[in-house]
Amino acid sequence: MQITDVRVRRIEKEGKMKAIVSITLDNEFVIHDIKVIEGEKGLFIAMPSRKAADGEYRDIAHPINSETRDMIQKAILTKYEMTALESQEDETYA
């Protein structure tokens, strides 16, 4: 499985959520609404989730193993950092 596209929508409001991301796998399958969150130990991703009847949030889609989760998180955070640098450059030249 290859991540063939990562699209980042940055969140400009103050808060822990920094972006909403969509990834494409093998040019065939898309996962929307992955969140980039600022935690105590740095940035991490939260997979798309839905609130269940009991009030708990449950992932709609998620990796089965930690290696896949790490691969997805690395690809997303790398792209997020690239968009952060592009935003800073845009502000510098504005």
TrEMBL record:
Coiled-coil stretches noted in the UniProt entry, renumbered to this chain: none
Keyword Ligase: no
Pfam families documented for this protein: SpoVG
Top-level division of the source organism's lineage: Bacteria
Biological processes per GO annotation: division septum assembly; sporulation resulting in formation of a cellular spore
UniProt KW keywords: Cell cycle, Cell division, Septation
Function: Could be involved in septation.
Family, similarity comment: Belongs to the SpoVG family.
PANTHER family named among the record's database cross-references: SEPTATION PROTEIN SPOVG-RELATED
Protein name, entry field: Putative septation protein SpoVG
Lineage start: Bacteria, Bacillati, Bacillota, Clostridia, Lachnospirales
